[in-house]
Design brief:
Order of helices and strands: HEEEEEEEEEEEEEEEHEH
Helix content: 10-25%
Structural class: alpha+beta
Number of strands: 16
Oligomer: single chain
Bound molecules: calcium ion
Largest sheet: 16 strands, mixed
Shape: globular
Length: 271
Amino acid sequence: MKIRRLVSLLTAAAIVAVGTVVSTSAASTFNGSYFGTGFDSYDWGKMEASDGWSNGGMFDCTWSKDNVQFSGGKMNLSITGNQWQGYKGAEYRTTQAFGYGMYDVSMKPIKNDGVVSSFFTYTGPSDGTVWDEIDIEFLGKNTYQVQFNYYTRGQGNHEYVYNLGFDASQGFHQYGFYWDKTSITWYVDKKAVYTAYRDIPSTPGKIMMNVWNSKGVDEWLNHYNGRAPLTAQYDWISYTAPGSSGSNQQQQQRQNNNNNKYNNNNNNNNN
Ligand SMILES: [Ca+2]
């Protein structure tokens, strides 16, 4: 234990020495039964806003903490700027990592070509781990749909697009996923709508939300027209550990999920 910690410290020191700006060790993993925030204000210590750097690639913006604002019990994540001075996006995340359990958000994404509004878990090389991720992504080109996805040890290509039957950009709805060792089930307004079973990720990750404008992925997101500012709103997020008392509502969600699985199995048997 001591040796491992020392090695970890030395590694961290070495990385700092070469000037890498990313964080240098895995985040501590949350070990309580419930975590949540209602976005009344910046939760210092529990949450942090990305600031002053860019993911690069298809992300055509620099994260700015100024684009993370709290007002009237909501968090506003905004895309600002212009093509001459550059664009700024917004990203807010937990400082701790979270493992298996139920993740929920109440949010209202941006409607606009070329942008994404998201709620996801992420851990990767910047945290000293493999790249594992579970996504709920709204593509601003069509906010009547939501895209689910996940990455396991850096392997993605698990996209699934669900037709909501309403325009997500017009009001707050609850979206979530229940993650365990063998499956991930996504929810819309507390109803299980899709389950993935193959190659499920296992590494705890930070809970993250962001909004960003894109470049070079017009086939996926449509071309960003430069419109700004654009704002997605988040009302609250929560995490409930598996098997914990949690909220009755989340227990009910899991129960419904099990019933759905049972019904699906019955249907398969009937076929
Ligand atoms: Ca709120």
